[in-house]
Amino acid sequence: MVEVAALPHVGAADLAGMIDPSKTALVVVDIQVDFASREGLAGTFCEDLAGVEAAIDRIEELIATARGAGVTIAFMRVVTRPETDSAALKTLMVRRGMPGGEAICRVEGGGADYYRVAPQPGDIEIEKLLFDSFHGTDFDAQLRAREIDTVLMAGITTECCVDSTARTAFHNGYNVFLVSDACAAYDDAMHAGTLQVLSQNLALLTTSAAVRAALG
């Protein structure tokens, strides 16, 4: 398995010259009850959420530093209702032998609620139905309205919603950085493999410590 620490990362000194706080957004992906809390859906299939909790620790620090530096904070969140589940999603679940398995991040029941983090007035908030934070939303328009050209990606899960959002950000012309230790997956190999693929194709990796130092 590839080791995340062995992948090329941009250090604080170089990063400081690559990001302009006034044109940068910290994109916090899906820190929600169903994905991160023992009380949510994740608690039913993942015995060890320590890696997720550690990533959220770093996200909390990043949010505080970014706010102080004038970086835009953007919170992504999956919000679903039975009537919003797509036919393709339902069919996929049935074919996997998991009918009803699409009931994730429901408004009713609290699964869609934020976990440990919360937006403040002036932050960007995006509600989405699936993985990509740009698809079917006005995220791109909101970033462009603020003249953002760079995104710092953090959140869960690395191989799913972080990956999907990072790819579209790059395709839409944004400079993409993945804060490797502020992202997490339920499987370490999947987390590391996704970071390796994204760093080879569309993004630069950095660490939460490097971001805080560059912004500080």
From TrEMBL:
Keywords: Hydrolase. GO terms for molecular function: hydrolase activity. InterPro entries: Isochorismatase-like_dom, Isochorismatase-like_hydrls, Isochorismatase-like_sf. It comes from the Bacteria. Residues 24-209 form the Isochorismatase-like domain. The keyword Cell division does not apply. PANTHER family: PEROXYUREIDOACRYLATE/UREIDOACRYLATE AMIDOHYDROLASE-RELATED. This is Cysteine hydrolase. It comes from Novosphingobium organovorum.
